[in-house]
Amino acid sequence: MQSTFQRYALAPISCGIALAVAWPIDAPASCFLLAVMVSSLFGGLGPGLLSVGLSALAFEHFFLGRTIPPAVEPALYLRFAVFLIAGLVITALMEVKRRVEQSRNRAEEDLRQAQVDLARVSRVTTMGELTASLAHEVNQPIAAAVTDANTCLRWLKRDQPDLEEAREAAARVVKDVSRASEIVSRVRVLFKKGTAQRELVDMNRVIREMVALTRSEATQHSTSIGAELAPDLPQVMGDRVQLQQVLMNLMVNGIDAMNDARQTRELTIKSQRADHEHIQISVSDTGVGLPSDQSDQIFNAFFTTKPHGTGMGLRISRSIIESHGGRLWAENNAPRGATFHFTLPNKAGTHE
Question: At what angle are helices 28-43 and 45-58 packed, to 10 degrees?
Answer without folding.
Answer: 160
